[in-house]
Design brief:
single chain; alpha/beta; TIM Barrel; 2 domains; 11-stranded mixed beta sheet; two-stranded antiparallel ribbon; elongated; disordered N terminus
């Protein structure tokens, strides 16, 4: 797999949105086809106008109803009084990977900010071109994974389904301005735990289908909320489930992913197997590789057995740097050796956008806690002292 080289640019910024009063109008993002047809009928418009509107509001990159010239002027005005075109405001944008990766900072009505990462993949032998959007589902995150910047924020609030979908629509608009195609895939792997409010996530997945992104092109990541995994299976959406594993033994995962203390590895894997059987979608295991923490030969052999037992595929993700953290990715040679021991079920995923803090685990990295927090989570007092005294760090095992 080719490693992307990020080329940071100066962020293009707008004034950060101030808190606004809640808007009572229904959001276009999550308006069901029947409801949109009904709204158009109330405005005296034919049903085919719905197709024109959705195309312009997604692939066309229109910024508002007034920017859809195919619609009559009076219809645009009427729709503006009945529906809310967008629930988020673009505050800033940064580019990396020669424009193939974009990080969007988006503001909500209450002044809270979320980040969305849009990644374009060009066509290559055996692979089609695709545009993937990594969406956030929460402002912050309550899980508190030791290697993740977002988790150090704590949870501020859950995003509404329309706010999730509108992240994809903003990515579509920015790509349209750059001359690229609209999003084809969506991954729920940004800020937050998607299954902490599984019904909101499910509502967003359904709405994405109305915008042309089928559930089979959606990946939902979770740290392992077992009842919510089962609930997602009951809903029958058919999305791919990605379990953020990151360790092969409970004592280590207890410290890396605190949620493991409630739902340990065996329970998470069994829930993942149940979901895979019911959905017909292969389970994915996400595994962030941290040098000296979870990248040993024994870790690789255990991960191989776990993946085989779950019929799962492993995405190995070298840890992305977080300012102030003593942890880092293993060397490329070590990553390759680990992948070789896991076997054919493993793929190395080199993250995009790391130079603009847009890669996995980096969102809102500028708000991370002191470096000693990582040592404290692992219960390594000698490491915490070493950080404070700026001495070489001991190897973690």
């Amino acid at each position: 797999m080719t490693v992307s080289t990020a080329t940071p640019t100066s962020p293009r910024s707008r004034p950060a949105p101030a808190a606004r009063a809640p808007d009572p109008r229904p959001a276009l993002a999550t308006l069901a086809p029947a409801d949109l047809a009904g709204c158009l009928a109330e405005c005296g418009a034919a049903p085919y106008r719905a197709t024109q509107l959705r195309r312009a509001a997604f692939a066309g990159g229109a910024e508002g109803f007034d920017a859809v010239p195919l619609l009559p002027r009076e219809l645009r005005r009427a729709l503006g009084t009945r529906l809310r075109y967008q629930t988020l405001t673009l505050a800033a944008e940064r580019e990396a990977d020669r424009g193939l990766t974009r990080k969007l900072l988006l503001g909500a009505d209450d002044g809270e900010m979320v980040e969305t990462v849009a990644m374009a993949y060009r066509a290559a032998p055996g692979h089609r071109a695709r545009q993937t959007v990594c969406v956030s589902t929460q402002v912050g995150c309550a899980i508190g994974c030791a290697f993740c910047a977002t988790g150090q924020l704590g949870l501020r609030r859950q995003l509404h389904p329309a706010e999730i979908v509108d992240q994809v629509r903003w990515a579509a608009r920015q790509w349209r301005l750059a001359g690229d195609a609209p999003p084809s895939h969506v991954v729920f792997m940004g800020m937050g735990e998607p299954l902490q409010d599984v019904d909101a996530t499910a509502a967003a997945v359904r709405a994405l289908g109305w915008w042309g992104i089928a559930p089979r092109r959606v990946v939902v990541s979770t740290s392992g909320i077992v009842p919510a995994i089962d609930r997602l299976g009951e809903l029958g959406l058919g999305v791919t489930l990605a379990l953020s594993l990151h360790a092969t033994l409970d004592p280590l995962r207890d410290r890396l992913v605190p949620l493991n203390r409630r739902w340990p590895i065996a329970a998470c894997l069994e829930a993942g197997r149940r979901y895979a059987r019911g959905s017909g979608r292969r389970l994915t295991l996400e595994y962030v590789l941290i040098a000296g923490v979870n990248d040993g030969d024994d870790d690789a052999r255990r991960l191989r057995r776990i993946a085989a037992g779950a019929g799962a595929h492993c995405n190995l993700i070298p840890m992305n740097g977080i300012p102030g953290s003593p942890w880092h990715a293993p060397t490329p040679a070590r990553v390759r050796a680990f992948a070789a021991r896991v076997g054919p079920r493993a793929t190395i995923r080199f993250s995009r956008g790391d130079r603009v803090q847009a890669a996995c685990g980096q969102l809102r990295a500028e708000l991370t806690a002191p470096a000693a927090r990582a040592a404290r989570i692992l219960g390594r007092q000698d490491e915490a002292r070493a950080i404070a005294e700026r001495r070489p760090l001991p190897v973690l095992r």
